[in-house]
Design goal:
By secondary structure, the protein is mainly α. It has helices at 3-9, 21-34, 38-41, 48-69, 77-83, 86-103, 107-113, 119-130, 135-146, 156-172, 179-188, 198-202, 207-251. It starts with a helix and ends with a helix. Residues 220-252 are annotated as: Disordered.
């Protein structure tokens, strides 16, 4: 076993039983970064098919090298190359990281997450379930949500992004908002510039569909505005050219 692997297993992570997730989650990230595991868990879990393809390619490359040189490969060269392929290394690091996390969880929490196929999925489950914020934070998020308003020529796309962000924060804080309420609040957040589009939004069956319609309409309006600007610019250039021709004709 390599030195890195040993140090990873001997890392002590504070036990987590369901309280104090923000501090514990920060410690998890720090420990995994120090041990060179954090980047590996950001990647998808390698599949058996990918691992086999990479292993076969490594074997073929090792055999090809020895054939080209005309000399037999040293004993164990091919097996060493296969054992150090990038995907296999990534998979091993992901397994080590999962072992560290599971060892730091209480029996109850470990039972909740050990069947999840990726460490990020484990951490997300723990964050969504146990990252309970104080009532002041919940109140602030609710006030920001209710206060969202699209005024004048402000960007609809930015408004949609802000709405999604606040809704995600409320979900993380276990504040449940029905789809009907999301639709109602979103329509109320639109300024006069979108009054003519309310009829279209009222026909949307879900909040997600409403957001998609608004996003598409915002793009259409931007394109229309750009065409108008281009048309005005071209008209101005044509008028200037005509005026120059008239002036030139008079001078002659």
């Amino acid at each position: 076993m390599s030195t890195t692997t040993v140090s990873c297993f001997t890392t002590k992570l504070k036990q987590f039983s369901g309280t104090g997730f923000p501090a514990w989650g920060a410690q998890v990230k720090l420990v995994l970064e120090i041990k060179g595991l954090w980047n590996a868990i950001q990647l998808p879990r390698p599949t058996d098919f990918d691992l086999k393809a990479e292993r076969d390619a490594a074997v073929a490359a090792g055999a090809g090298t020895s054939s080209a040189s005309g000399a037999p490969s040293p004993s164990g060269t091919v097996s060493i190359a296969v054992s150090t392929t990038p995907l296999l290394d990534c998979l091993m690091k992901q397994k080590i990281a999962s072992t560290i996390i599971l060892a730091a969880l209480s029996e109850k929490l470990a039972a909740e997450v050990y069947l999840l196929d990726h460490l990020l999925a484990m951490l997300r489950h723990l964050r969504m379930t146990y990252n309970v914020k104080c009532s002041a934070s919940v109140g602030a998020a609710k006030r920001e949500y209710i206060g969202l308003y699209l005024d004048g020529d402000e960007s609809m796309i930015e408004h949609i992004q802000n709405t999604r962000r606040v809704l995600d924060e409320l979900q993380e804080q276990h504040v449940l908002i029905s789809d009907d309420e999301k639709c109602r609040n979103f329509m109320q957040s639109l300024g006069p510039a979108w009054n003519g589009f309310v009829g279209v939004l009222e026909s949307c069956a879900t909040f997600e569909l409403m957001i998609q319609r608004c996003h598409a309409e915002a793009i259409r309006r931007d394109q229309q505005k750009n065409r108008r600007s281009s048309s005005v610019s071209n008209s101005g250039k044509a008028a200037a050219a005509f005026s120059a021709e008239q002036t030139s004709g008079k001078q002659k």
